[in-house]
């Protein structure tokens, strides 16, 4: 399946205003957002993420493992965000996705999220987020090491990766980083791919990534100019339970 991105702007921003307010009200009632400890910290020192996060539904492992509560215990802000994102996805893709995980991230001025791809095992094809508050710039680049992270990249052949690499460089009119042909290939080197394109996301926008986007690309949120909250919905299959069911 191809990589596809959809950037949707709401007709009116009043809904986003209310939801942004709701998030802040709910966060006063119970402590939603916390800074989570990084799973791998350089030099063995315990470090925390710059941003604050709160997870609902299936557990989600990225650079850190955020506090998770079951879907039925979602605070109102998360349920409203999930419904809105599901509706926009239904209207846009004309198919309904039963999201079972929502990661809400809060950024104070100057915070961001480094380049990563959503690497959860069992991650579904559609990842959709709703942005509230300060504008943000999202940048994309090709994954320079497809084997990195928790995502299973065993199925990516070198030819497949190089095809995407060429295609993306042509599309964005960027020259391909030079590789020492004799000793290395893009798969093996520590090449850092250039940023291929950026997307400026505003208050109330919904951003959808589908298909192979996570497999071939990484995205980052550059340091934001002000307070921002983003709610991202995913469908995560319990691959272990599924494997057990099919074996028995
Ligand atoms: O802040 C955002 O809009 C996206 C956050 C993100 O990249 C993620 O949750 O993986």
TrEMBL record:
Alphabetically, the GO molecular function entries are: broad specificity oxidative DNA demethylase activity; cytosine C-5 DNA demethylase activity; ferrous iron binding
Q: Name one Pfam family in it.
A: 2OG-FeII_Oxy_2
Any idea which positions bind 2-oxoglutarate? 107, 116, 219, 228, 232, 234
Can you tell me which residues bind substrate? 60-62
Domain named Fe2OG dioxygenase: which ranges? 98-237
Any one biological process term the GO annotation gives: DNA alkylation repair
Q: Which InterPro entries match?
A: AlkB-like, AlkB-like_sf, ALKBH2, Oxoglu/Fe-dep_dioxygenase_dom
Signal peptide span: none
Entry-linked PANTHER family: ALPHA-KETOGLUTARATE-DEPENDENT DIOXYGENASE ALKB HOMOLOG 2 (PTHR31573), FE2OG DIOXYGENASE DOMAIN-CONTAINING PROTEIN (PTHR31573:SF4)
Kindly provide the name given to this protein in its UniProt entry. Fe2OG dioxygenase domain-containing protein
Task: Please name the source species.
Answer: Hydnum rufescens UP504
């Amino acid at each position: 399946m191809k990589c596809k991105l959809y950037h949707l702007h709401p007709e009116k921003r009043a809904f986003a205003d209310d939801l942004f307010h709701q998030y802040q009200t709910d966060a006063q009632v119970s402590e939603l957002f916390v800074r989570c400890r990084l799973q791998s910290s350089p030099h063995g020192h315990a470090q925390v993420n710059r941003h604050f996060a709160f997870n609902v539904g299936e557990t989600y492992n990225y650079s850190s493992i955020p506090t998770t509560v079951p879907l039925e215990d979602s605070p109102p802000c998360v349920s409203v965000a999930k419904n809105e994102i599901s509706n926009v996805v239904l209207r846009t893709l004309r198919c309904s996705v039963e999201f079972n995980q929502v990661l809400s991230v809060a950024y104070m001025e100057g915070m961001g999220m480094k380049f990563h791809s959503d690497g959860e095992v069992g991650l579904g094809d559609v990842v959709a987020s709703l942005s509230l508050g300060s504008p943000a710039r999202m940048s994309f680049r090709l994954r320079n090491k497809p084997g990195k992270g928790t995502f299973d990249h065993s199925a990516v052949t070198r030819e497949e990766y190089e095809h995407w690499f060429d295609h993306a460089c042509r599309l964005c009119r960027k020259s391909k980083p030079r590789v020492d042909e004799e000793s290395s290939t893009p798969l093996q080197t520590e090449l850092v791919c250039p940023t291929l394109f950026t997307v400026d996301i505003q208050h109330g926008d919904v951003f959808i990534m589908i298909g192979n986007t996570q497999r071939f690309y990484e995205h980052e949120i550059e340091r934001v100019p002000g307070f921002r909250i983003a709610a991202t919905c995913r469908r995560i299959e319990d691959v272990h339970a599924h494997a057990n069911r099919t074996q028995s």
